[in-house]
Amino acid sequence: MSVAKQTSEQETGNKMTYRHIVSRRLLQYGTLLTIIITAIVGLNAVLAGKDKQNQSVETNLIPVITVILDEVDSFEIKRTYTGIVKAVRTSELSFRRTAELTSVLVKEGTRVKKNELLATVDDRSLQARKQELLAKKNAAQALLNELIAGPRKQTIASARAEVSQMQAEWELEQAELQRAGKLFEDAVISRSKYDTVQFGTRAAKARLEAATQKLVELEAGTRPEKINAQQAVVDQLVAMLIDVAVDLEDSQLKAPYAGVISKRYTDEGTIVSPAEAILRLVDDTDLEAWVGLPAANAIHFSVGDKHSLQVDGNKIEATVSAVLPELDPATRTRTVIFDLENSSSNQIVPFQIIRIEVQQQNNTKGFWVPMTSLVQSNRGLWALYVVEPIEQDSTFVVARRIVEVLHLQDVRAFVRGTIQSGERIIADGTHRVVAGQQVSLIAERK
């Protein structure tokens, strides 16, 4: 091999080694640059993730509406009690004797006046009885008038004549007795004949005394005892006539007061008895309300007090007319009776339900809270969520407080418990939060 060829091969080998070295270094520099770029991209991704996480935390804070607690010393309990409207006068009308019902002159809904004829029963037997008693009474009265007037003059004159006749007969018998006595002494007549004449004289004297006594009685007039006895007979017949007149009056059923017929129980032809009602009469112009109240509340009502009652959502003014002294054994309440004003209008009718609202003061300290703020707890208690501020931050953290519900009124509740005046409670949406959760405030409810 020549020197020139050897030199040419050596130069070619040196050129290949230099290219190889340059290529390796470029590859190393590219790998390093890739690592650096990857590291920078990863670092940026980490930093971006942290910023996004912080933004997400701030975005996930639940906004809540709060109420600031304000303690009060007492509260009023509003309770509604129901009663019933009643007519002051309601009557089940019936006859007082058993008889056949001959006519009913009214029907349901008929408005009647006082003493208006409503129904009648058969009274023919009473009319006949009345005529009989009237005849007896007239006869007894005539006899009484005769006794009071005394004997007639002709009767007295006849009695005097009879006395004169008896006097003459007695004198004659005396003369006969004297003659018979002389004859008996002379033994002309027997003892038997003399006794006969003697007895005849005594009989004549007795007849004279009887006629004389009769004349005295006639001249003195009728004895008071006899007049009084006859007067008693007349009075008895008059009383019997009055009794029949009462029965005749009771044969006509009349309205005891003005009102409306609310029920007709029977019709003509029925045999009715005193215990059987024919009609029901209601005085719908004079109504009152009967309301049962607890004894503790009823003592605050006095006769003459004015109150507002509700009937079908309408208010009506009423005045306390009575507070019954006893408790109703069925409801254990004390009845207060109200006179209803303007009760004659068609707005109110008997047996309507009526309501009254009673306010009672309860001297217990506590807080009024919205019912939507209450969270059910254990053992019949409830809880509230209180928000407390986090130091050096605009966010709040939720805390749980146990309370006791004392009274519910409309959309709020009166509570007491482990809460203090001035604390903020979550007013609504309590189902979205739990104790220890961070929240943000968006509004405050009054």
Secondary-structure topology with pairs:
Elements: H1 3-59, E1 62-68, E2 71-72, E3 75-87, E4 90-93, E5 99-104, E6 111-112, E7 117-121, H2 124-149, H3 153-185, H4 191-220, H5 224-250, E8 252-254, E9 259-264, E10 271-272, E11 279-282, E12 287-293, H6 295-298, E13 306-311, E14 314-327, E15 334-340, E16 353-362, E17 366-370, E18 375-376, E19 382-389, E20 396-409, E21 412-417, E22 424-426, E23 438-444
Parallel strand pairs: 1-23
Antiparallel strand pairs: 1-22, 2-17, 3-12, 3-16, 4-11, 5-7, 5-10, 6-9, 7-8, 9-11, 12-15, 13-14, 13-16, 14-15, 17-21, 18-19, 19-20, 19-22, 20-21, 20-23
Please give a structural write-up.
By secondary structure, the chain is an alpha+beta fold. It folds into four domains: 60 residues; 96 residues, Beta Barrel (conserved putative lor/sdh protein from methanococcus maripaludis s2 fold), CATH 2.40.420; 64 residues, OB fold (Dihydrolipoamide Acetyltransferase, E2P) (Beta Barrel), CATH 2.40.50.100; 104 residues, Helix Hairpins (Orthogonal Bundle). It is built from six helices and 23 strands. The strands form four sheets. Strands 3-12-15-14-13-16 form a six-stranded antiparallel beta barrel. Strands 1-22-19-20-23 form a five-stranded mixed β-barrel. Helix 3 runs antiparallel to helix 4. The longest helix has 57 residues. The N terminus is likely disordered.
C-alpha geometry: rod-shaped
**DSSP strand tally:** 23
CATH-wise, what's the superfamily of the largest domain?
Helix hairpin bin
Distance between the termini: 112 Å
Could you name the CATH topology of the largest domain? Helix Hairpins
